[in-house]
Amino acid sequence: MSTPPRYVVLMGDGHPIDLDQPVGLTRSRVSKTLSKINRFGGHIPDEALWPFYSVAKHAVLVSHIVRKLGGTVEQQLMGLSHDDHEAIISDVITPVKRWLGSAMSEKDERLFRQCMGMMREQTGAPIQLDEPSLKIVEQADRMALIVEGSLLGLDVRHFQEALRTVRGLPAPSLAELNAWGLFKDESTMPFRQVIQSDAQGYLSRGRDLCLAMGLSGECFDVQDAQRAGRASAWSPASASRSDTPMASVPNGAGNVLTCAEP
Question: Which CATH number fits domain 8-258: 1.10.287.40, 1.10.3210.10, 3.40.1280.10, 1.20.120.1810?
């Protein structure tokens, strides 16, 4: 008789995830969960233009920055999926990870690789967790941290490690951020629509990257997920964003444009 798993996380649709041997983490489950998790442990100023900023939106931003840094389509998909494991354990902020020590780091790394493996299996993408790919995704992640911190009104002086990592690299311009559609005015959007929009953004980006590789991208298809009973009944039309561009940028946003300067 097999031993039942000791540590199980129930997804929103009731699917159990065994932390030691995770299976069944579909693109739909990832997108829906990450769209409900606030970045920075929720420590975002109340007066920020985006007091709720989801991990799903962060993932899409990282994938775009990987492309700006010269990354391949496969590496862009890695950037999109680099926080998939947080759909299981949530977004544990870096100071807490370091406080918890090596056991946390080891389990976080193992779960990261396991979730990357599931994404690779579901998409058929030739993802390689080699040093160059991991490095460019890390650089994009650090760049995204500074961009987000600046736009959300955080004190980026606390991000010295990230600043050192991206020094000399091309930072995204405000025009590019607007073009990527990630920083629109959401002040009048119902919260449910915000999270649905972020989930849809994750799925759409993943599907586009798969198509660019000549893959079907079916695992990123919302309607397919609905038919399989893995997503609630919401349509892309209902999740459309406001067409209003970034309204105003806090003074700290200058860091977005200068963080990469030597």
Answer: 1.10.3210.10
